[in-house]
Design goal:
The protein is of the alpha+beta class and 114 residues long. Helix content is 26%, strand content 18%. It has 3 helices and 4 strands; from the N terminus they run H-E-H-E-E-H-E.
Length: 114
């Protein structure tokens, strides 16, 4: 007589979830966000808007929050980043931050057919 496997659906689901989490790449040490690196003062509305891209695996909203920035938009699909109005000091500080891939001033896209 054969016995049934002891695995049940919840155990199998838990094992699959654990395997999925274990397969995620570990973030490098430089990807740790240091809160307070950028002034928490909100820039004036006359400051230009910038697009900030952060490394894959990081939550762009959490990065903005950790640096005292209030994003106007958060992106997850096409790019991993956020848009925000930034002071020149915040731009320079973000460009020097290892969790940030790029900081570019927002503007019209040139050379793309309408």
């Amino acid at each position: 007589m054969r016995t049934r496997p002891s695995w049940t659906l919840p155990t199998a689901v838990a094992a699959a979830a654990l395997a999925a989490v274990a397969a995620l790449p570990a973030l490098p040490a430089w990807a740790v966000v240091e809160p307070g690196a950028v002034s928490p003062a909100a820039p004036a509305t006359d400051q230009p808007s910038y697009l900030v891209t952060v490394h894959e695996g990081l939550d762009p909203a959490a990065v903005a929050h950790a640096y005292g920035i209030r994003p106007t938009h958060v992106f997850h699909k096409v790019a991993n980043g956020f848009a925000a109005r930034l002071s020149p000091e915040q731009v320079e500080a973000l460009r020097a931050t290892p969790v940030v891939v790029s900081v570019e001033e927002d503007g019209p896209v040139v050379g793309v057919p309408a």
